Amino acid sequence: MQLYPYINIIVIAAVVVVVLLNIVPMMVWFERKGSAFIQDRLGPNRAVIAVGPLRLRLMGALHNLADAIKLAFKEDIVPASANRFYFFLAPFLGTVVAFTTFAVIPFASPDLFRGVAGLEDLNFQVLKLDAGVLWILAIASFSTFSIMLAGWAGNSKFGLFGSLRAGAQMVSYELTLGLSIVGIVMIAGSLEPQALVKYQDTAIWPFPFIIPRWGIILQPLSFVLFLTCIFAETNRTPFDLAEGESELVAGYHVEYSSLRFALFFLAEYVNMTVGAMLLVVLFLGGWSIPFFSTESLLKHPDAVGLFMGVAGAIPAAVLAFAFFRLFHKRRSQPYWGDLRDHEAAVLGGIVSLKGFGLLVLGLVCWFSDSDRWPVWLGPTIVALFQIGFFMIKVLFFLWLFVWVRWSVPRFRYDQVMTLGWKVMLPLALANVALTGLWLFCYDALFK
Amino acid sequence: MSEEKNVSRNSISFFVRVYFVEIVKGLLITIRHLIRNILAHEKGLQTISYPEEQKVVPEGYRGTHRLTLRDDGTPRCTACYLCSTVCPANCIHIEAIDKGDDVIEKRPAKFEIDELRCVFCGFCVEVCPCDAIRMDSGETVMAEYTRRDLILDINDLTAKTSHDGVPLQTHAQGVNPKQRPGAGQAETQEDA
Fold first, then answer.
1. Cβ-nearest to A38 among B20, B33, B46
2. Could you tell me the CA-to-CA distances from A154 to A89, A90, A103, A163, A267 in Å, in that order?
3. Chain B contacts of A422, Cβ < 8 Å?
4. How does strand B107-114 pair with strand B66-67?
5. pTM for this one?
6. Do A224 and B180 touch (CB under 8 A)?
7. How far apart are CA A2 and CA A21, in angstroms?
């Protein structure tokens, strides 16, 4: 029996789940601190861990830990008139669906480890499905069930209204979501995410080699449509009328408390991450790096190592400078007047050590003889580079979710429906038709 | 027959109706705030980090009550019951006593204010003929472990007055020992 594919799946799945679970608290921190700074507030800064004489606050990031502990120890209330089975089922369904969608997202090129140490393709995705894009659409539409069940099972009119709104909205926008993908699928000629990314890994013109063949350049209209639909599917502002606080208290999860509420929270942020990764895979070339194809990266792993070291050291240096400047300011004022003033220096020290370490590693890569490296080292460095680049793109879109939430006001229900059915659906259909026409003409004229 | 009425609306230009450009404009505004607040090290922020720094209580702001004193150190109150009569919340309880003084016939034997019932309307201060009760202590934060602790008796009320007749609390003057330096300057800049 061939064990290797199963080991591959298990290892990648474990890594993906750990990374996802770590993205969620980071996103919560983004959300809280970012919204605070956008609104000229201070944001969370009170939760503290006392390490010896030091007081670590990590700029409010520890509040997530406190929140998690609080939610875990809250009383779990089930309304007397609730349907207990569906009430219990809804949050689990939401979370499971959110995590399952990740199975087909590719993080790096599968060709990297070909022929290294007797390996076949090492898939940087949990499931290699030929109909991966369809899988995403099919599984993601299950989250509607979670929301509908949650609103209905709680037997509360606010929850029911919220879930009705969410259900109508998600059904309406799922059409446009699917149709906006069709354009890029038609051009690339595959439903398999790895193949889609591989298609985008080249340049439109071989020389001067400037414009990558990314979906956002080939299909700008469907990128905008898809982005809007992702906002609607994840129930984020400006489409968050399912949880409009002013009308519906909290929307579909109004009856939930304790860890069940936390599961909804988790599912929301994981769904956002799915949306961001989908956007990157379909429209921003996934793990592909503009100017550098996978083959050219594999030929020069030493240069990749140097680039990664320098590229990691520069933001670390900027951060460290900012921390030390902050420390200097707080000491000279004095800001708190106690040990809390020293925290910035500790963080600055850690960050500058990290930057220095990255720089040294990069220089070692550059000056050592890459021909005498072990065979797995070069592909590993390239894989890290591609995963890092992928995560940078994903982080940008995650930040976009937060950024838009605190900038754009909520739509009215009729506006959402008008936009979905009368504007976006026709545009998506027109985009599909135009893409087909363009492909036909291209084939007729140039082939 | 109903009267026909035309309501004119401002026409929206095409760019505004597309809404996409307007969203980008809004995003630029918010990111400008974010970057400014990160670079300026919390200088333009409106938040007051509460226990460390407190809002400067303006003069004339009604805080908890205090009883003023005569030159000889006794309360100026003559137990005339005007304040307890005018009090809409019924939170002032006075008992009078005759101490044998021919000039000041009555003095308060008991003077209690239930700060939990008080609505801070200031009528008692207005009505007092002797300027005996004031609300200029600058204390706005009342937190105790039991409700009984917030029913202030005559000793608590006079203890807030020094022998010079000024309130002991320094909030009213805007001098807060724990206040972060520079916070007051930022506020004046905001005003300007």
1. B33
2. 11, 10, 31, 11, 18
3. none
4. unpaired
5. 0.79
6. no
7. 31
